[in-house]
Design a protein that fits this description.
The structure is a homodimer.
Chain A (H helix, E strand, L loop, with lengths): L2 H17 L5 H11 L7 H8 L3 H13 L3 E4 L8 E4 L3 H28 L8 H41 L3
Antiparallel strand pairs in A: 1-2
Helix pairs in contact in A: 1-2, 2-4, 5-6
Chain A binds a DNA duplex through helix 4.
Chain lengths: 168, 168
DNA sequence: TTTTATTTTCAATAAGTTTTGAAAATTCAA
DNA sequence: TTGAATTTTCAAAACTTATTGAAAATAAAA
């Protein structure tokens, strides 16, 4: 397999993969393209390589920046903006975990806590089933929350450890 | 808050939550409804409680059965089919992990292995960037794969399952 | 300042996905 | 068998989300 063929395949699969995770195809494809490209790219490069419109690139790039997965890069002497993706997959993963935790898990845990404070006779079969299920989900969610914090910390420490090595 | 209000809220939030995970709103809502309802329900019950069509219930229930999250229940003397959801959230989670691993992670790892076998000079900056990134993602994916297997095993193993209950 | 390059916005439209509902198929009892 | 109850299917319609592209805004150069 040739490099360009392989790139195309990766971009296309990563895009399809994304749709199973509530991420839009194009956003995942742009991310994939930036992941496997050594040098930063401009909006025009991305438009051309993925055959998509300027507006589409612009919106999705900004979304990726919002997720902390892509950075604007300013090349000296260049008028255009360039973009590049974090290549360390652990950093990518912890960044995604951090964001999804904040956007989804945290609000869900808050809601579940409220739902457990239900009025009525705790002996009632229906009420019991409800509070038991909600309680179970909440406990599970809290557990997951803790575990993810540990993963994030581990990655940050690893990063710090490596950063410090540079100064030794 | 009253039971029915709380149920409605849970169903609606669980549905919205699902859309961020590539699951359709209705499927997640049906799952939520079955999770918080003590007794099994018929298609008609679900139609009524969620105000959706018969066809919609039927398709999504079958999808949920395909994911191993919902079971058909036959009540003696009843002509209609009843449906109920697994209520133990750990079992729900491991079931989802198992399925997604099979449907998404395994094929992705297979593809990444192929993409690493690329033709050309390994010293070339572009080729190096590509194989490094793909290799990194693959290593990470394999790691995740192992970790998920451990979680699944833990849940399936009686002793470990009981040990885990201490943390639930 | 004016001009030109570049980025951003957003209404219109295209594409994709979900839902409906009626007809067909199936199941079970009489 | 036949017929009523129930489940399944699937084309068409409704709804949702993504994409385009041209116009407006912004930034840099002349």
């Amino acid at each position: 397999m040739k490099l360009n063929e392989a790139k195309q395949q990766f971009i296309s699969s990563w895009g399809a993969f994304g749709t199973h995770w509530g991420i839009n195809r194009t956003m995942a494809q742009i991310h994939a393209l930036l992941l496997v490209t050594a040098s930063p790219l401009t909006q025009d490069d991305i438009m051309e390589q993925l055959s998509i419109s300027r507006g589409n690139v612009n919106m999705n790039i900004r979304e990726l920046i919002g997720w902390g997965l892509v950075d604007r890069v300013l090349l000296t002497g260049e008028r255009k903006e360039y973009f590049s993706a974090e290549k360390d997959i652990w950093k990518v993963a912890t960044q995604i975990i951090k964001e999804r935790k904040k956007r989804e898990l945290d609000p869900m845990l808050k809601l579940l806590a409220q739902l457990e404070e239900i009025e009525g006779d705790k002996k009632d079969r229906n009420i019991k089933q409800f509070t038991d299920t909600i309680g179970g989900i909440r406990k599970f969610g809290k557990q997951a929350d803790k575990m993810l914090d540990i993963m994030i910390k581990a990655e940050e420490n690893w990063f710090m450890a490596n950063l410090l090595k540079l100064f030794k």
